[in-house]
Amino acid sequence: MTQLINQKDLNFLLYQVFGAEQLTQFERYKEHDKTTFDNVLATAHGIAADYFAPHYAKADQHEPMFDGQKVSTIAETKTAWKQFADSGLLCAQHDYANGGMQLPTLIHMACNAFFMSANAATVAYPFLTSAAANVIQAFGTQQQKQTFLAPMFDGRFAGTMALTEPDVGSSLGDLSTKAIKQADGSYLIKGQKMFISGGDQDITENIVHLVLARIQDAPQGFKGISLFIVPKYRTQLDGSLAEANDVQLTGLLHKMGYKGTTSTILSFGENNQCQGLLIGQAGHGLKYMFKMMNEARVGVGLGAAMIGYRGYLESLEYAKNRPQGRLASEKDPMSKPVNIIEHTDVKRMLLAQKSYVEGSLALCLFAARLIDEHQADKNADSEILLDLITPVVKSFPSAYGPKANDLAIQVLGGAGYTRDYPIEQCYRDNRLNPIHEGTFGIQSLDLLGRKLWQHNQQGFKLLIQRFNQSLDEVNSDETRELANIFCKHFVTVQKTTQTLGIALQQGHISQTLANSALYLDMFGKLLIAWLWLDMVNKAERSFKDSPHAEDQNFLAGKIQAARYFIRWELPEIEHQAKLLTNFDDTCLSMQENWF
Fold first, then answer.
1. If DSSP codes are grouped into helix, strand and coil, which group holds residue 82?
2. C-alpha closest to that of 557 among 526, 579, 536
3. Given pLDDT bands bounded at 50, 70 and 90, which one contains residue 1?
4. What is the CA radius of gyration of the chain?
């Protein structure tokens, strides 16, 4: 059976590193304990392994088709959807009163990790639905909730977010989709959206699109944008379907990866019959949609981490069982070939993968823990810290997950880029994640241009507190050596941040933000290095005196991966810091005609 995750690693992260059991002290989660957490994790693992992983390759090779009338997906996708919906995972985080489990985000995200590893394309349908339902739950009217939430939670309806337009892309303030108010209080929606994942399919009875549009005569820019519920079929208060809602599928886009998820071009209101229902207040659409977008950004980070993780496990298994060549010290040509995992360069590639993907998973679960702290305890500090690191949670796994998959292909050699192994598909699927939900460049502008300086830099100060707590917990010589390296580069990041902050205050915006991608990568490396240091602290506490070889090997593996990342990857920030603090203009001053 395909290994989706190292179960010991996941349990370690949940219970030793991020203290999942401590969450049951909050009123919201008091009905839970480790047994209920383990049960829901086992359910997720079973569904992912039995109904998602088996058609991973088939969904890629038989992608959805559009015959001009309807979309067709493979039968296994529909079966997987039903299993997911029947399990209750579509509304697992919602209140008991709404049919949910009041499950902590930390545990819910760990459940999602199994699905992302098993089949990221198929699980996109339920994940998008959950995110859309969360927006309606948070900002919709009672009538909107009554109409749409129950059928979304039970799997009759799916959900999407429709933001991007053909001529606009990520510049949402320039969108042109219109909303014209009608006598009954609804709106006529007119416009076109593209790259809408799950925008049409034959899996559910109805699809609930969350559409950004500009109400007629609203101002240009972000302040003129509103958010609307636009179902494929108009929907009665009891969830029953009425007539089609003039949402037309113009065509499917065919991508290099995530082929099992329909990527659509949708036309709204070609026949002036597309009804939209305003969510919340007019002009607040982006604020509402950012709830879904931020949730999706963390989800993209998790997906990138887990696709990278799946590739790592596949290449590790191959390396352990593939005999080829001999060690450099072996001169006898008649000696038995060794398994390639004994070659140092293969160890390097596996160590790099391990450091990227296990560090990325830890980062995503850290974000989930912050969400729980804020939701359950209304902890403002947790919300501020989460807001700061969200660009990193999206971007670091999305940059280094594909790098891990690239290395996994290399470990397999010629076999790595054939369909005989899933790694080439992992790479193609993961290559979409650097683009999903905002590119690396967009996230870097968000971090350096805005997030760092909010709340008088309180987010960065809170993160430093976390760093210092982990440094105080160091209790072994080998970990202290890593901590010293971390501290050296941490000082560099602090000095760089101070220099860039002063430049922004002085109005040197273009020069300061020109190399923001370098800063985001630097910040991400520091955050991952801290998580590795913290993981080693917790692993030493849990396993150092264990008599079991499995525990000792787990601890040694964590230490070695931390060494790799902190010794090999983290020092790269020194060169990045020089470019940033010197305000290097190599890219900024390049002219179009010089290319």
1. helix
2. 536
3. low
4. 24
